[in-house]
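ugh ok so i messed up the first submission bc i forgot one of the chains. this is the corrected input, ALL of the components this time, i swear. 454 residues overall. if the numbers dont match what u have on ur side tell me asap before i send this to the collaborators (the ones from the other lab, u know who)
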Amino acid sequence: MWIAELSRQTDVPVATIKYYLREGLLHAGEAVGATRARYDETHVRRLRLIRALVEAGGLSLARVRNVLAEVDEETREMHEVLGAAHGALIPSDLTTTEESRGRVDELVAEQGWQVDSESPDRLLLANALDALEKVGYHLDDHLLKTYASAAVQVADAEVTSLPADDRQRTVEATVVVTALGGPVLLALRRLAQQSASAQRYGNPHRPACDTAEPAVRSTSQGVRSTG
Amino acid sequence: MWIAELSRQTDVPVATIKYYLREGLLHAGEAVGATRARYDETHVRRLRLIRALVEAGGLSLARVRNVLAEVDEETREMHEVLGAAHGALIPSDLTTTEESRGRVDELVAEQGWQVDSESPDRLLLANALDALEKVGYHLDDHLLKTYASAAVQVADAEVTSLPADDRQRTVEATVVVTALGGPVLLALRRLAQQSASAQRYGNPHRPACDTAEPAVRSTSQGVRSTG
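and heres the new structure output, hopefully the right one now
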């Protein structure tokens, strides 16, 4: 296909495709004469991957280049490629305390998770725990374990759902699901919170709801104020 | 206490406290002479709440004012106050398609969630589903239900963990847990994804892991490409 058709199929403007070609993110097409080139399915797939990394993942082109290098390095194991895609989605300026990092390492060991000891995902969790401490809240072990157990269910279903036939498509789907599945999960959690709170505090418009049971469960204090 | 002590106890600068006093976000202290005033525990708690809304929730002062008005309106039911705190955390410029809104309404009904039909949380979920469609992915019902079930576990534990004795503290904790518990959950999900992916694609450094079982499970395709 010509570049116009490639643009139409991928929803990427011709000028952007030319930019990716110049930057080496996209491999050249088959030259036909001096100024035209033919493109094929491999270009469509690569453009989809770049688009997922940029639009869903919010990555800079420099980071996209790193992930693509991992995808193209045929000697790399698949889980290493996924690790690179994951790592590229993490902000590089994460600060953490020693306490929170220790707590994360303990949790990972306890859950028996196979996670690289150098994984930036550990820093991401430590940073999130620190953010809570900073405003005077300590997440207790019970609530942390509830989060962990929910996270395992979600992650297992997500990883199982990834296509396994093709490195590019797997990485593309990993980035899309990691980046855009998060907001779906968080929005569902807010809806479920609203429902749980209506049950706990009572909702005069829905008298069918029994408030007695949640009130009993409220004795377990998952979030302890430390401020 | 004098204003300096109030500042020390809450970690809010004196100049900021004076600004909140002028703006009416914080009630005046007890006047002692022409230029000094004494503050008490009610000021400490109100400042903690404002700090949670601004720092954890990232709210503008105009939105903080709305939430505080709900907290102070004694005739408001608790679940309405929490609804206002929740609503204030949602960006106001959400766009959604009719398809995604219909899917959200269906899911909420199916799950039996008590959620206001006008709740902005519905828009938040619809918007997140649209973001996936926009990059060519359709989240299938199986994966969506797995998210929903994990969300219920998390939300129940979170709402149960909220202090129930005091409106201000409940709203403060709701904002902090909603805003900062999200990143904790997402970070745990990434760690669990990494572990699930190491199991599925094999990790040469950890030969104890059996890759056979996850490969069988990969036939269920949760994320279907629509692009």
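quick check: Chain B has ten helices and four strands. that seems consistent at least. The two ends of chain B are 63 Å apart (CA to CA).
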